[in-house]
Fold Xanthine dehydrogenase family protein molybdopterin-binding subunit.
Amino acid sequence: MTQYVGKPLSRVDGYDKVTGKAKYAAEFDVPDLLYGYVVNSAITKGKIKRIDTQAALNLPGVVKVFTHENRPKIAWFDMKYKDQDAPPGSPFRPLRDANIVYNAQPIALVVADTFEMARYAASLVEIEYEEDKHETAVETNRHKARKPSVGLTTLFKPGPPKPRGNFEESFSASPVQMTGEYMHSMEHHNPMEMFASTVVYEKGRHKSGGRYTIYDKTQGVTNSILYVSQVFDIPFKDIRVISPYVGGAFGSGLRPQYQLFMAVMAARELKRSVRVTLTRQQMFSLGYRPANVQTVALGASADGKMTALYHGVVSETSQYEDYTEVIANWGAMLYPVENYKLDHKLVHLDVATPMDMRAPGGVTGVSVLECAVDELAFNAGIDPVEFRLMNYTERDQIADLPYSSKELRECFRQGAERFGWVKRKPEPRSMRRGGTLIGWGMATGIWDAFHMPARAEAVLMVNGKLRVSSATADIGTGTYTIMTQIAADTLGMPIEDVLFKLGDSDMPAAPIEGGSWTAATVGTAVKTVCDDLAKKLFKIARKMPNSPFAKATFTDVVFADKAIQLKNDTSVSVSLQAVVDANGGAAVRETSSALPNLFKQRKYARATHSAAFAEVEVDEDFGTVRVTRLVSAIAAGKILNPKTARSQIIGGMVWGISKALEEESVMDHQFGRIMNHNLAEYHVAVNADIQDLDVIFVEENDDIVNPLGVKGVGEIGLVAVPAAIANAVFHATGKRIRTLPITLDKLL
Ligand code: MOS
């Protein structure tokens, strides 16, 4: 019956996006709107001694300046509330007191009748600080690193497991070895759309307060409504959060950001509608991918069997939250090493708390591990693909469970074939094109295949069209499109007659869009609710006067061509429009929950896998690296839409090039401040950096992960790419660059 699932449909939201009809959080027209501009701290640690807002207030159109001295009473300041993606600790609360705990921390909000006036007035707020000594560098503070307070890491996964076997003994006895220390820079998400919240204030239904309709840039309206309700002690029924479109987020929208707090606070106090938008520079005052130092030691037998693995991580976090990623675990998940020891420590610095950023922890750890494995294979004199096949496992070594499916072998085979890997000369510096060195490198990728609980609603409307909704998000990933495909197939309707809606807290709840779990999670909820609606429609059809289904059961019918038909004789049918008419002309609606089948899942490890193959050209005179070819073979279960899925993988590959060669938030540790806080100096890969990208989806059938067999493709596209490029750079030059990004200075 499948008609749309698996087909390369163009985005159903594409037209609205390219014509500007799609509206983002800062674009909704609201009458009588006030604009807030945030003042950020100029120091990194200390106290505000004096804050003088008079000059700002004297300007025409300036309504109010909120500071820690005059801010209203806020419920959150006296209790512990954490958003859905908060790590262990005590979240930062803007304007709570005079303390400064990180540079560019928000310390005041200027509200005026235009954005420009608010911004100018903000520049006139005079602040006197009492400055303390700060520490912001991971490298010089790594001796202070300690175990995270709680064993759980971000995305609800356990931290490094207990050691297995005896690493020290086995490593020192290994005839083939490698050791290395690696450093990765801090990175910021830098989505195109800046964070913004437009809070529409209306007089409340009861005297206690107002009603708030909030257009928010977020990866989860459910997270935002819970946050606003708890933080400000406003009942749910007086809040609605709407976020139909998100201009990229990559994890930065998993936590409510401070513009939401500021906008709601101002709207509630002033009883006016307020918009707070952050500038590009202020986007660097939010969470980020943490800088880290990693140490790896690997041992193998003379014939290339991996025997010993150590992966130790020191990563940064703030003074107030223990942000902990899964960085060290991946090696023991990918390779059947008898003796492993994994370690993860945090160094608490005077910085903002880091945040999940595309493949958080996964790309961080794998980018190092897969360079180390390349080095070990080289030391053993074995081809890197061959070496990985020799050290292949069907079981997750940490959970000690078989994978529900794992077509990584096929990724190696198909990727190598497409790339032409057999023509690789193993010696470094042995391949040239004209005056430039050519390098070919490869790496493995792995990411989780999560499935979370979610709800959805399906309505067969009076006009015979289907409307399905869930309070999920589409951060550019294609959620609108794939959910429309699933709904259309389940009820046998043409895609034009199906409308999928998301991003509204009035809709049935869904988790934040993250972890690559939305296709599996919301997809299953959409499938479930459409199945449930089908049953309801059949019941109505069966009771219709002279129903052809009077003696039929649900298993006797199919849904096709906007009708219910007998399986055995499809000419016997009742149109969906007739069902609505039989329902007294009223819409037929159903709401359902879909939970992961834990009973089925618990006996298996679940993950996506990939293999990336990269070709680089290195100019030895200038130290410049160009990625001329990149092939990614992806095993991620069923691909619902090869077009939108390919776009996800390509986005990840571009990011991988960016991460390997360009991206880095450069901090001046003397000031504790990020110097390149703009898109001119924070380099990301642009069109001119991208040449030949090739994506292969390897067939993978899996009925354990979820009923759809879907594993998610949001993050796996990135994971293997930086290591593949770093390994290609080694192959081209003979140099192991262990600090990302590989900028030209490191190659000269
Ligand atoms: Mo992703 S970093 O879970 O949005």
Notes: The chain has a mean pLDDT of 96. The chain has three domains: 33-133+191-279, 142-188+288-450+602-747, 452-595. The pocket of dioxothiomolybdenum(VI) ion is lined by residues 219, 250-251, 254, 356-358, 360, 514-515 (CB under 6 Å).
